[in-house]
Structures are given as structure tokens and as C-alpha cells.
Amino acid sequence: RILVFGLVVAFCAQDVRGVDQLKNFCRRFEHRTAVVNNKLYIEGGYFNAKDLGTNYTNDQFLYSDLLVLSNALPAVKATPQLDEKTVPSIAGGALWSDEINGRFYAFGGYLSAGDPSPFQTWTYDTLQSKWSAVTTTGDKMVYVARGMSAIAPDAGTAFYLGGYHDNRTDQSWTAPRSYSSSLVEFDMVNRKYTNHSGPNDSGRGEGLAVFVPASNTGLLIYFGGVVQAKRTKELTWQNIWIYDISLKKWYQQIATGDIPEARSRFCGAVAWPDDKSSYNIYLYGGLHQNGSALSDVYVLSLPAFVWVKLYSDSTKWGHHSMTCDIVNGTQMIVMGGTFPLTTECDAPETLGQHNVDLGTLIDSTKIWQPFNQNNPPYRVPDVLVKVIGGTVRGGANATGPATNQTFDKYLFEKEYKVPQRYATPIDTASATGTQAPDTSSANGPTRGLLIGVIVGALAGGTVIGIIAFYILNYMR
Fold first, then answer.
1. Where are the chain's structural domains?
2. Which end of the chain is least crowded, N or C, by CB within 10 Å?
3. Does residue 5 have a pLDDT over 90?
4. How far apart are CA 123 and CA 163, in angstroms?
5. Which residues have a Cβ under 8 Å from the Cβ of 459 and sit 6 or more positions away?
6. C-alpha to C-alpha distance for 318 and 339, rounded to whole angstroms
7. How far apart are CA 84 and CA 62, in angstroms?
8. Could you tell me the pLDDT band of residue 207, with boundaries at 50, 70 and 90?
9. CA-based nearest residue to 305, from 349, 372, 258
């Protein structure tokens, strides 16, 4: 009788966890996203349902269809359900897009439910709707959470700077939480990991890293978040770190202008005009060191290394632990987040999506805009043009910091050139997959599938009948 009661409770818990976000959405946070083939994929993290008041591990694998609008933003749809027993439920990690191969890789994060499992690299093939664990070479990896992620798309290389270790990332970890100081490089073509040195020996995390197509093979720009030396503290936003990928060399540059307040767990993206005379890194929101959250927008313009404040909102809608994804180089979709000052749901009609038009963000009273599938090319905001010169189409006059330039003076003038790459399918012999069932009407169910369904239904009915029999006898 105790066993039967346990089974019934397990069924009820599964039913609560299976709440459909598409019908009962309130909030999401600590998830991870990737844009591939006109779809913005949403995976992992936590989900809060209407009227339930509880945060649940996100067990739905969704995507925003960038070609179909609903309530002026991309329509959110469900992918075939992934197998949770195989693909771990992760929060605070990253997805690395490999657009040429129509797939993305999952890296980092902490286990949002259950005990941490051994490290594996998972990839999702968007063309086949299939998850696979791939075999990798190079340096040994472990799970780290809330690090800074960036992708060099032309070279097919992904990076992850810092992040923390604790008993939610590693089951054998018994020490206090510790942030990593290293930079992980992942070659998505050869599926090889390499560990590099970070800016220094201090652990770091919860900031932002972006890839900029400048210098020989590109640069990583990193700022914000926390740094751990003798104690964990937030970084000053005057200090901007530059990593030259080809030279494997770090520089630190002091920025000027409207320096943002220190924060962590914010998000951002980078955009540039066609002539690449400026690279403009936009950031949104974040967790303030006093425990509140912010709802503002700043832009850091390179190579001038000057901050410009574009939007400020001191209302209850400040939030952190969201994602930012740039679409077509002109719009930034901000999704989800934690709101410390309100319990209201986050735009349930769009499932927590908001859109920023990066080129027209000049009205300090309005930040969110409808998503435009045919948005014109990126335009430098007028308020930024007044600082760096040129026009909305480019031609910036500011070619370096106003004072105290610390990096190679030709860093942003070197020709960016990487070899063209082509699709490199994963060898199925080196991957174990969990493929979602094909539900299209064009491919009818196989004979084996029908037999499996019938046998499963009969077995399930038998179990339910036995449970009901014992419950009725117990009640009598």
C-alpha cells in the first residue's frame, strides 16, 4: 500500500512538471538560447507558471519562429519533447550556434534538478530534430556555470571565459564555490577543446563576452560581472578586456563616457555598420550589487572605447538572468529574466520576449519595438553618431580611445580574414543520438512503432488497473 501511494504521488508530480508553457506562461530565467536557420531555440533554465507560484525546471524545448509573428513578436512553438533521462537539465549555461551545419552545441551550466552527471558535449541537429552526445578531443572539460560565452562564426570556434564550480556542477566538489580564470576554446569543426589563460589568475563570471570581426582572425571583448580574488566582487565598467584570437594575447583598455553602474547577469550583443568603422556593443539590465535589478541600455563603441547611455528605466521592471540574441544584425531579442521588485508575469502574450531595434533606439521613453522581419541594415543611433562622428551609415571619425591607448595601434586596422569553411557533418559512428519521433503526416508510423504503441498501451493499462484495485481495497 505504501508502494502504491508512492506511485500515485510520482504521477501527480510529473503532471505538475509537465505544465504547458505555451498555455500557462509567467516567467523564465537562467535559460540558454541560440539562433539557427531563422529559429531562436530556448533550452533549459527555470519556468514559472501562472497561478502556481513555483519555479520548475524547464522540461520543454521551445523555439521562436523568426518568420512567423504573433503579437508583433516571433511566435513561440514547441519542438518534439527531448529525453530528459539522456540530455541533462541545465541552467546558467550556453548554446553555441554552428549555422553552416544547422546545429548548435550545449556547454556549461549547473544541474537544475538532481545530481550533476559527468561532463558531456551535446549537440542538436536542427534539420533532423535530433540530440547527440559527441566525442571530443583535446583538454579535459568539466561543467562550469555563468561564464561568458562568445562565438567566432566564420572560423567555427566557440569560447567560454570563466564560470564557477560547485557541487551543482560537479558531484565530487566539496569546497566553496570557486570561479575559473581560464578561457575555453572549442573547435566546432574538429570538435576539440583547448584551455587558454584568461586575463589574469583571478576567477571571473557573470559578465559579457562578444566576438568582433576585427584584427586577423577576430577579437573577443569582455567586461562586467564578478571577479574572485580573496573575495568575490563586481568589476568596474571602465576596464575593458580585449583578446586577440590569432596572437592569444590579452589587453586591458580603460573606457570613458557614461560609465554604467556595476552589475552582473546582464545580457548584450554587438552590431556594426557595413564599413565596420565602429563596433557597438549593447547591454541590457542586470543584477545590481545591492540586490535590485536594472532596466537600462548602454552601448560601448569600439575602437573609441566610449560608453553612451541610450535608455534608463527605474521602475519595477528591472531584471537579470535573461538572454539577448541579435537577429539580422539589427534587432536584439531580450528574453525572460528574474524581476526582484515585482511578482507580475513577464509579457505572457509573447512568452517573455521583448525586441530592441538597435538602430532606432533614440527615444529615451520607449525601448521595446515590434519585430520586423525585413528590417533595414543596421544604423548607428544618432545619439552615438554625435559622440564618434560619421553618419548613421558609418564613417566613424573616432578610430581609437581618446587617451591612454594600451592595445596595438593597428589592432582594429588589420584585415580580418579567415578561410572559408563548409558543412562538416558529424560522423554518426562517434555520436549517440536521441531522435524525436517524426510526427509528419507524410511519413506514417512503422509496423514496429505500431506494435510498440499497442504493447505499451496494454502494459500501461494493466499497471493502472492494478493500482486502482489496491486503492479501492485500501479505501474499503
1. 447-476
2. C
3. no
4. 21
5. none
6. 6
7. 14
8. very high
9. 258
Looking at this protein, which amino acid is placed at residue 411? L
How is residue 97 written as a grid cell?
550556434
Q: Is 80 exceeded by the pLDDT of residue 443?
A: no
Distance of CA 412 to CAs 42, 218, 302, 304, 305, Å? 34, 9, 9, 11, 12
In sequence order, the 6+-apart residues with CB closer than 8 A to the CB of 27 are: 47, 48, 336, 337, 338, 339, 345, 346, 352
Burial class (CB in 10 A: 0-12, 13-18, 19+), 4: middle
Q: What grid cell was written down for 156?
A: 567555427
Compute and round to an integer the Cα radius of gyration of the chain: 24
Instruction: Count the neighbouring beta carbons within 10 Å of the beta carbon of residue 471.
Output: 14
The string of pLDDT tens digits covering residues 446-473 is 333 333 333 344 344 444 444 443 433 4
- Residue 414 in contact with residue 214, Cβ under 8 Å? yes
pLDDT in tens, 169-205: 998 899 999 999 999 999 999 999 999 999 999 999 9
Q: Please report the pLDDT score of residue 74 as a whole number.
A: 98
Rounded to whole angstroms, the Cα distance separating 331 from 327 reads 5
Peptide bond before residue 303 is cis, with ω within 30 degrees of 0: yes
Is the per-residue pLDDT at 157 higher than 60?
A: yes
51: left (phi over 0), alpha (psi -120 to 50) or beta: left
Nearest CA to 1 among 465, 471, 476?
471
Question: CA 34, CA 147: separation in Å to the nearest integer?
Answer: 16
Cell numbers standing for residue 291 = 540586490
Can you tell me the distance from the alpha carbon of 426 to that of 132, in angstroms, rounded to the nearest whole number? 10
Which contacts qualify for 236-240: CB closer than 8 Å, 24 or more apart?
236/262, 237/261, 237/262, 237/307, 240/300, 240/305
Could you tell me if 181 and 201 are in contact, meaning their C-beta atoms sit under 8 angstroms apart?
yes
DSSP code per residue over 248-288:
TEEEEEE-EESPPPPEES-EEEEE--TT-S-EEEEEEEEEE
For residue 5, give the DSSP letter: H
Q: Of the candidates 245, 183, 248, 222, which has an alpha carbon nearest to the alpha carbon of residue 302?
A: 222
CB atoms closer than 10 angstroms to residue 420: 6
Query: Does residue 241 register a pLDDT over 60?
Result: yes
Q: Which residues are within 8 A (CB) of 384 and not within 5 positions of it... i.e. 6 or more apart? A: 278, 280, 299, 301, 308, 310
